[in-house]
Amino acid sequence: MIEIREVQTKREMGIFIKFPYKFYKKHPYWVPSLLMDEKNTLDKEKNGAFESAQARFWLAWKDGRPVGRVAAIFLEKYEEKWGQRRLRFGWLDFIDNKEVAFGLLDAVWQWAKELGAAAVHGPMGFNDMDKEGMLIEGFDLPGSMLTIYNEPYYNTYLEMYGFEKDVDWVEYSFKTPEKNPELFEKMAKRVQEKTRYRLKTFKNSKELVEWGPRIFEIYNKAYDHLYGAMPLNERQIKSAIEQYLKIIDPEFVLGIVDGSGDLVGFGVAMINLDTAVKKAGGRLLPLGFIHILRAMKARDTYLTMLLIGLEQEVQKSGAVALMLNQIVDTCHKRGINRIYCLPELEDNLSVQKLWKLFDTEIVRRRRVYIRYMDAAQRMDYIYKA
């Protein structure tokens, strides 16, 4: 018999968080998140998103053991920004069993009804820095600590339940070129000769942290129009600085400054830590940090492009070429042979024009699904959009 129970205790939350670590433990392609990050994200005391968000969590049980989980998140300011009351789901994992899948989705659906939501969509987190998008292509490739990995049957059950595509993301990959594309070289030269924009590098983590608030101020503006985006508040920005900027290699964080020295753009990349995090089982202690420190100094590895953000007036200046040229040069110096890009919306043509200058391929595709409460609400939203 399948039983769906809402998480009520600290012990149950521990089971919820650790479920995929056990479920996918021997899977060749699944890569865990850092366990510490998962705990902080779902902790109401530590995640600033809870200032204007509600969340509920459920576990599915069979014969006394957990067989699935799901979270539901209600962002109180979402309707004000996007014009429709929605509930999002995330942290969805379950065994290959229709009763389990539907039981978890029923719990989310019932809460959506109680909230008067017009639709349920996901998988998504509290913001765009959380994992989002169900994997629909690329199951036979190693995953990432920063993205969702799931078995193909997840999508089957979501569609059986009545969910449909709302939006897709694609992930690009390309071999580090022997030299920068000629167009980038020309763009960079033109920027240096014709504009006031210049490349900024960061000497160390301390300097990077000092610039952190400005980096995320630009992030909020640059990503504001993207699907489902909600701005990070002050507490979330502080947490992001602690969580990412204090540990990332400053050599892979680049900025664009204007004539007055103000930061007007940034790019963030990270050397491959996925293999190390998988070896460590997502745990930094007692010995996981050793794997990670080794990975940060490794050669013959790959780089992940995390974020690029530009103030609006900089976006058409070509200044992004300054950063991408530097990234390629650093890859040569560090022996990095391949570059992966985190998911980007399939219709984000401005970014895709950049990648077309390299020998790129789409290696993964992922999807956010949606189910409307009724056909009238679905058509009403499509008409307004």
Automatic annotation (TrEMBL):
Listed transmembrane segments: none
Matching entries from SUPFAM superfamilies are given as:
Acyl-CoA N-acyltransferases (Nat) (SSF55729)
Q: Which residues form a coiled coil?
A: none
- PANTHER family attached here? PROTEIN YGHO
- Record protein name field: N-acetyltransferase domain-containing protein
Q: Which organism is it from?
A: Candidatus Scybalocola faecigallinarum
